[in-house]
């Protein structure tokens, strides 16, 4: 019978591998097209690998708890000729003609609900391979000394460990001019060999990788206080009560709609504007942070956002988010005020220009010209971190002013 490969699909733009969590079927089982057969864990969520055609599962040649690269052959299905013709897949060892391949690609690209069918498996796939996480990382204490010159040998070793030049600043250099040599690094690694340690989770490694990549840009942060009394009064009258984050998110989306260049990307000599105002919301989970994206936030009212937001948070904390809710946001809102933090310096994701942070509400006396006395009001700090190549401090300040002004009219949000 013809054999069709089950492969590790592309589960997200920045995802190169996934860990096998559980097999949902066993060899000899009859399976249907688009059936989930393997549960895998990426650095962002738990997802299912589905099949391109129906048939009988011949075998799995991967192991639970092991990470495999995108494109790795995970198993084999024995299918009938009728099933092959009905689904249009090409068995292992056969080459699809160009016309059929084009039709299949068009079909898979339009299949938005099934990430597995986006994987182009119409070719002979490599044998299963095991890879180590792409970012290993190493906690290194902060110091003042570092290396201006890094030898190729030293660079290769640092790449193995996921280290950058700033990460070796704690290592005392014995080379010329205080340069850190490979021997210095190895001695440092040996000295911390017996330090307490734990294995970093895929989520933690993903956050570390994203922040490293994001910090390669010139980022700056500005902030201003915002009076929340009108928003809080409006919120008390709503059932169910929407979170303060949603008011800020909605105001942020409307402000960006009026100034789309602020969320643009610098590509060559052009600022490329966003086509949709999809805003992410930072959600704290057990071992890191995920950022599900609310699509077209500028077109949805706060009550509409509330239901969608609650569902996304529930899925995020259960690691059940699909990749369609984790990609292609233009900015993020993060409410670090829930942890009692009054101010902060959030960092945008590598693919985003902006992130808006919301601090904890604080009661403060404010002078009232009407009553000629101080009155208590609730304020919070709004801070925005931005790519300084695209936005200047003045532009970021004006964007914050728009958000602040919109929050004074919560009934319009």
Describe the structure.
Strands 9, 12, 15, 16, 17, 18 and 19 form a seven-stranded mixed β-sheet that branches. Strands 1-8-6-3 form a four-stranded antiparallel β-sheet, with no helix packed on it. Strands 5-4-2-7 form a four-stranded antiparallel β-sheet, with no helix packed on it. With 413 residues, the chain is an alpha+beta fold. Helix content is 26%, strand content 23%. Mean pLDDT is 80; it is low at 98-147. It has three domains: 3-118, RNA polymerase II/Efflux pump adaptor protein, barrel-sandwich hybrid domain (OB fold (Dihydrolipoamide Acetyltransferase, E2P)); 152-199, Dihydrolipoamide Transferase, CATH 4.10.320; 204-412, Chloramphenicol Acetyltransferase (2-Layer Sandwich).
